[in-house]
Specification:
Distance between the termini: 16 Å
Oligomer: single chain
Strand content: 5-15%
Shape: globular
Radius of gyration: 32 Å
Structural class: mainly alpha
Number of strands: 9
Helix content: 55-70%
Strand order of the largest sheet: 3-9-6-5-4
Length: about 625
């Protein structure tokens, strides 16, 4: 309890988390937070509150969102005033016409329809009654769309991008200042006599304290603690100066993995066979590019066969199922092909495991994917052709089709696609926090929607509300499953609203059953928060991160060999742990150093940090990335 409620910036979130969990528990035991209809009114909000309070990254992004609102609200107010002015002109201009009756009957409906137009959901439908009768009316609607959609909405996006970058800069400066202040205070506590140096024993004891009192930190084993001390001790004196200690937070980003030499089963059991010239030739071939190219060629042939089998279906033709495909025997050319492909993939998997050994083979996610599909294909083959009640060989085809996904590696071999794939991977890994924020917003609106609109959309003839939907656009579009009757359906509705298209048909259904236009406030509020703010924040983040990553990737990352210290390849550095930058560590063997996952640096930044650890006499003052997890709170 003392560790959980210890003082620090995260104390408030821990208190909120504790209160939310307590309320949920009390609600289960004593039915606290339970209204008269026996549904726990606040339980969904307590659940998401527990999730938010336990995620520092989510809290941080919520603060970012709150900081953006003042800058964005000015543009939205200007857009609202412009729509009010345009609605006024529209009501007066189209009074008594079909356009006025359908879209501009009063200023409220006129503003509502113009707002829908800014989301493009009813354009050009909005202008057609007037445009069919008078072509120049297109000037009114065209000018509105140019100003509202092409200009104002993009101003909103630009404001969000600018606000996000300003918040990142502010957070970066603030975090660096806090880090410098806290590290200075820590150094003074560890050096009570004011000698200007901290001994090795004190630093190693500090690592032990972090392991015991700060569960946010990854556990630091004894050997790793010695390595971290060596990286801090750049001058090799085994005493840490204040200048060196100021890099404590950066050094803590390092993670280590010892390199073990794993022998293959054949090397251990039959060394004479393993070292024979014939096996070595076989091993070289299995690990060569020629073997991979041969497998890729077979995959292409597999894809062609699957395409030929599916051609009639893909062309939309009626296909009669061949009864021989269900007789449990290999008596068609397609079944023979599928069996041959399965055998080839089994041979490939077995040969790679035999040559590389299980440890090295399992390190590759591509190998694990191939093995999974191969084992599923073998299992399906045995299940289909072994005498039992199931004998449909098409099951094998469906599983083998997944194997064809491996052909995407052919695209990755091309430099432009390779760059896009790697950049996309980096951006998505860093964007997960933004998507988490989007999920939180959708969950809150979904919970509220279930409480307000739950059960209203129904086709039960005994429910009088079902008749209210007859003749509505909602019923005509067959949107019955788009409802707020449960959380799953509610989240689907909100996802549809994020996509924006046809969202008015969904809103029309709820307006029909509620017999009030107040439900429009819910949909407008979600559009502003979910689409205008959060979804644009996602777009801003992806664009910003992609451009930065693209600039980094223009110069291909190289392998750096630091004489006597390490070999750095991409995000990893291989080094001899016995001595690091002149400091003896008392640790034996080869290790791999990498920047931990909690530090969401791009690959270029990670490689620069690794080079500085092994080359610089003193580490550079690296600013803490605001995208890194806030450890130590």
């Amino acid at each position: 309890v003392r560790r959980y409620f210890r003082r620090g910036p995260a104390l408030a979130m821990r208190v909120v988390e504790f209160v939310a969990v307590s309320c949920l528990t009390m609600g289960l035991v004593y039915d606290v937070c339970t209204p008269m209809d026996q549904e726990r009114l606040f339980a969904p909000y307590f659940r998401i509150l527990v999730y938010v309070a336990s995620s520092i990254e989510c809290v941080r992004e919520l603060k970012t969102l709150a900081a953006m609102i003042p800058e964005v609200i000015n543009v939205l107010v200007l857009l609202l005033l412009m729509m009010a002015f345009y609605a006024w002109i529209g009501v007066v201009t189209f009074y008594g016409s079909d356009e006025g009756t359908e879209y501009f009957p009063n200023i409220g409906d006129a503003m509502w329809n113009l707002w829908i137009a800014t989301t493009t959901a009813n354009y050009p439908d909005l202008m057609m009654p007037a445009y069919n009768n008078f072509r120049l009316s297109a000037l009114y609607f065209g000018f509105f769309m140019i100003v509202a959609y092409f200009f104002m909405m993009n101003i909103v996006l630009a404001s969000i991008v600018n606000a996000y970058e300003n918040e990142m800069d502010r957070r970066r400066v603030e975090r660096q200042q806090v880090a410098d202040r806290k590290l200075s205070e820590a150094f003074e506590l560890l050096d009570p006599k004011g000698t200007g140096r901290i001994g090795k024993a004190s630093i190693l004891a500090l690592f032990s304290i972090l392991n015991y009192d700060f569960p946010e930190f990854p556990t630091i084993p004894k050997e790793n603690a010695k390595l971290l001390f060596a990286f801090l001790d750049k001058d090799g004196t085994e005493r840490i100066s204040k200048e060196e200690f100021m890099h404590f937070g950066v050094v803590l980003l390092l993670e280590f993995e010892r390199v073990y030499l794993h022998k293959t089963l054949l090397e251990s059991c039959l060394p004479r066979v393993y070292f024979s010239p014939a096996y070595q030739l076989f091993s070289d071939f299995i690990q060569s590019d020629r073997f991979e190219y041969a497998i890729d060629g077979i995959l292409v042939l597999n894809a062609v066969v699957v395409f030929i089998q599916s051609y009639a279906m893909l062309m939309g033709k009626d296909v009669s199922v061949d009864s021989s495909l269900k007789d449990g025997s290999i008596d068609t050319i397609w079944e023979l092909f599928e069996t041959i492909f399965t055998i080839i993939y089994v041979v490939e998997m077995t040969a790679k495991i035999m040559v590389k050994g299980w440890h090295k083979y399992s390190l590759s996610s591509r190998n694990l994917f191939d093995m999974t599909i191969t084992l599923l294909a073998v299992s399906a083959t045995a299940y289909v052709y072994f005498p039992n009640g199931f004998s449909d060989s098409r099951l094998i085809r469906f599983i083998v089709m997944a194997r064809v996904l491996r052909l995407t590696r052919l695209l990755v071999l091309l430099t432009p696609f390779q760059m896009i794939a790697r950049i996309g991977s980096d951006v998505l890994s860093r964007a997960k926090v933004i998507f988490m924020l989007l999920f939180v917003v959708c969950y809150i609106f979904a919970a509220f929607g279930v409480q307000v609109f739950g059960g209203m959309i129904t086709r039960d003839p005994a429910d009088p509300r079902s008749h209210l939907l007859l003749g509505s656009n909602f019923a005509a579009s067959d949107y019955w499953a788009n409802n707020f009757n449960d959380m799953g359906s509610a989240m689907n509705v909100l996802f549809n609203l994020l996509v924006v298209n046809n969202w008015t048909e969904c809103q029309d259904g709820f307006e029909s059953v509620t017999q009030t236009r107040l439900n429009r406030l819910f949909f407008v509020a979600f559009h502003i928060v979910g689409v205008v703010l959060v979804n644009n924040l996602v777009v801003a983040f992806v664009i910003n991160a992609f451009i930065k990553q693209w600039d980094y990737r223009q110069e291909k990352l190289k392998t750096h060999v630091i004489s006597g210290e390490a070999v750095i390849i991409g995000r990893r550095a291989v080094f001899d742990a016995q001595q690091v930058t002149g400091t003896k560590t008392e640790v034996e063997g080869q290790y791999v150093a990498k920047i931990g996952r909690h530090a969401q640096f791009d690959e270029e930044h990670q490689q620069q940090l690794l080079r500085s650890f092994f080359t610089s006499p003193a580490l550079p003052r690296v600013q803490l990335d605001p995208e890194s997890a806030e450890l130590g709170n």
